[in-house]
Amino acid sequence: MTTADAKHGNARLGVDIGGTFTDVVLEVGGARYSTKVLTTYAAPEDAIIDGMGQVCAKARISPSAITQIIHGTTLATNALIERRGAKTALITTEGFRDVIEMRTESRFEQYDLNLNLPEPLLPRHMRYTLRERVDATGAVLIPLQRAEIEELAETIKQAGYQSVAVGLMHSYLNDSHEHMIRDVLSDYLPDVMVSLSSEVSPQMREYERFNTVVANAYIKPLMKSYLGRLEGRLNAEGAHCNIFLMHSGGGIISLESAAEFPVRLVESGPAGGAVFAAHIAARYGLNKVLSFDMGGTTAKICLIKNQTPKTSRVFEVARTYRFKKGSGMPISIPVIDMVEIGAGGGSLAHVDSLNQIRVGPESAGSEPGPACYGRGGDKPAVTDADLVLGKLDPANFAGGTIALHTDASKSAIGDVLGGPLDMDPTTAAFGLAEVVDENMANAARVHAVENGEDLSDYTMIAFGGAAPLHAGRLCEKLGVERLLVPPGAGVGSAIGFLRAPFSFEANRSVYMKLSDFDSMRIKALLSELQQEATGFVRTCDADADILSEFKVYMRYTGQGWEIPIVLSETQAMDPDAETFERLFEEDYTKLFGRVVSGLDIEITVWSVNATTPPEKVTPERAANPGADAKAIGTRDVFDPALADFVEASVVLRDDMVAGVQVKGPAAITEDETTIIVPASRRAIRQPDGCIDLTSIPERGA
Q1: Which of 177, 27, 205 is nearest to 103 (CA)?
Q2: What is the pTM of this model?
Q3: Are strands 633-639 and 315-317 parallel, antiparallel or unpaired?
Q4: Nearest to 581 by CA among 594, 562, 600
Q5: At 464, is the pLDDT very low, low, confident or very high (cuts 50, 70, 90)?
Q6: Strands 66-73 and 691-695, bridge-based pairing
């Protein structure tokens, strides 16, 4: 295809920067071209330019033919985890300086007497207060004086801060004081970036809100600089097109919005993966899907019901204590709800004080990478175990672009695990693989139980470079009968970016009991949120059709937390208390088994998500099992269910046509990943290219 031909079509580029690899996908003229390049930490845009050049060469077009670029990145997340953001100050209400350090009364490890709580993002000397106060109804109790702000502005100037976070008590109900602070700082410190909690996260609970606005301010200079450099580099390559960013809620926002609210990018990569899985689920008509995304640094597990990923208002980043809930920084923004654990291909293993193998959360990343990369790594990673166990072909990893060194893997596993545990490298590699698989299985079980779901009813969709290597074993552990590995699984999140709608979710905390139900106030509030959310989407596409999704968060009066209740547009624009009560009781009963009589019900948070319509899908018809696939050879692959090596057929995925089947044990190989088919499974190639793994009722059937 020539550049001229591409311009008549729609050439779109999806880019996902991960902890180990940067995935680049180009879709043009109905064809898809992809590549994986090692992430360049010092200048992430270098890997993007490299990957873009590779896929454009494959498609025989120039970068100038690209009409749209959609990007997701771990840059924001990594900056928070590694604490390498801008010099940032927090301005808050007098008496609330230590909220982000005091946290909540919750202890993530109840019985550890020597528990060390994570340090706040900003130390105490970088947190400042002003004498002002707004009460829980939004009324001003203590007016804010401009002279006091001016005095503080001088202090901030002398200290040389690059960014300022403003988080005042109850500003989500009355933001006048926060806006006043920004106006003064803009006059006195025009080069300092300012983030307001009433804009970043206008929701109740000051700890979460303050933490969110601090995180936004902390990474804002870094992200603005990066996005500016990226736009410049792409323009220099001839890619003069719109650039959009994937946000954590599963939609796309403009480059300008992303630069203003970079905290919304924190889970952008995993969100793209969930969108990818939801798209596959829609094609196959699956209403219960377990999305399994395993890359180089982490594994992400997400429940997708009725082809829609489950969402949440709060999540944690940078967990410091074995990925335990409560040990990280809470970020209060719309996000796809998923479990993320340190179990990627680059996750490092060690032996703890109890002589147990532990995996993660530390990762080898791409620099130096696992020991088998031959780039100086001397600690065993999950990829090293996969190589020793025969799951990977050392000569054909990443399409042959990266040579793997089996001896280096055996040496690292033997030194770090085998020696202390008196095991040979193969046995130690088996232990490492089983630990990481069981960690992922446990995470999936807990996530399912927390959401009242039985995973035996679910279909797993696996993607990410490492997921197809482990998904079959994970299904055995979880009792999941069906597994789909879609085409392009190795770059699934980047493909998901290209499937995602333009969207933005607006939230606001306004208390209202059903006994004080005010339909006119509710209608006005939801209309205002609808306009706000729609306005953001219009910055991406001024002419698109936009749908509105309404949600309220409700609880019994006196309870600590809410549950989300979905409203139709009719129920939102013509609200009545009886309908709200009925919907709440229905969902509350599903979660907890019964309602609570005699208690009033209250609404705490109101939400409107504006989104462009989802991409239309063509339903897939499953192929009937046909002839056995032709193998190109065999190799010994370790089967953990049998605790021994088995002779596995090696089949090229590109050689499989619709209906062709492969009985395990087998390895189905492609450039970006390998699908391991356990002896308990059979794989069939579906018409759209998905590899469909199902249980064999009886061995040999």
Answers
A1: 205
A2: 0.84
A3: unpaired
A4: 600
A5: confident
A6: unpaired
